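Posting this for the archive.
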Amino acid sequence: MIRVRLPYQLRTLAGVGAQIELEVPGPVTQRAVLDALEARYPMLRGTIRNHMTQERRPFVRFFACEQDLSDVSPDAPLPDEVAEGRQPYLVVGAMSGG
């Protein structure tokens, strides 16, 4: 099981708690995790990734094991700690402004 933590706004939209557990078939990559998340919670489609391009939305960042994975290939394997459920995969709403 993969543990995923979402920002408050997305938790509210999906009607879930602070952490979600997902079964991810095959290699555990960011794409696989986000595909499983959107399949289970269709109301999240388009909020994390663009519908057409599947690219990360601006102001959404991905973290795992204290590493920013936002610009890493979506098909790169996630760290073993995430794949084995010991550490969560974090979807974070970024802030901007001055």
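The chain has a mean pLDDT of 93. The first strand starts at residue 2 and ends at 5.
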